[in-house]
Amino acid sequence: MYEIGVADAISREVIMINDKLDKDEQDYPFDISYRRILDYENTAAGGQGFRKLLGDSIDFVLVKTAETNKETETENVEIDKLNQLEWQCDLQ
Description:
Largest sheet: 2 strands, parallel
Number of domains: 1
Number of helices: 2
């Protein structure tokens, strides 16, 4: 759970993986139940389905991270420009 908190603090995505066991529906603690949790069955067929599900989840996270990085880069460039203007004003 500590690692999830650290990931939240630095705005990183988390893909949680859980062995489905025999239950139809898993009960998760309230503080993680809203997250994307990938359940898998520990069988050969379950492994094949899980492979696709995990691949799709990784693709989604990579696209989301790339979009977030673009937004952050734009914000950083704007802040750098403002800092340069402030520095130039201080010189004058």
